[in-house]
Specification:
The protein is of the alpha/beta class and about 160 residues long. It contains 6 helices and 4 strands, in the order αβαβαααβαβ. It is globular. The model has no long low-confidence stretch (mean pLDDT about 90).
Length: about 160
């Protein structure tokens, strides 16, 4: 139970409802260490009934490992990559080291992430949660930025802390 965070919980609740209604939303939860950002994310996950929850927690020790966070985030819906355009599926598989990496595929990786999120949302709304964003590896962050900026009527809410 969170005390004194009603405004933040209400805003996150509206973002979850937006995804449930077929729209998309993205929120960044910012603040000093220890103020309860992770608690807000956990509360959102607990309230995400009827949604697919994709999450990752970035670690400082993995900040230099390309696509470490993307691997964790996409794991539950990785089977959907088979429904992506071939170039995007190959780029994502290469980034996650499932297949040999395709050269110059960074744009395709971001597009693949967007595609996987949209495909997952066709089945049920998606809550995408990233905690400790400051430790995200740069390639995962680039892909996430690309995808989140392009969310539209996809049924996806992204919470980034």
């Amino acid at each position: 139970m969170l005390i004194g965070r009603e405004a933040e919980q209400a805003r996150i609740g509206r973002a979850l409802d937006t995804a449930r209604e077929g729209g998309s939303d993205a929120l960044v939860v910012r603040g000093e260490p220890g103020i309860g950002k992770t608690a807000l994310l956990r509360d959102a996950i607990a309230r995400a009934e009827g949604m697919t929850v994709l999450r990752c927690r970035a670690l400082e020790a993995e900040a230099d490992l390309p696509f470490a966070a993307l691997t964790e985030l996409c794991g539950p819906v990785l089977d959907l990559r088979a429904r992506l355009p071939a170039a995007q599926a190959a780029a994502l598989a290469g980034a996650l080291q499932l297949e040999p990496a395709a050269p110059h595929a960074r744009l395709a990786i971001g597009a693949a992430l967007l595609g996987v999120l949209a495909l997952a949302a066709e089945e049920q709304p998606v809550l995408c949660v990233v905690d400790d964003l400051q430790w995200l590896d740069e390639p995962s962050l680039d892909s996430l930025r690309f995808a989140v900026r392009r969310l539209g009527a996809d049924g996806v809410t992204a919470l980034l802390a």
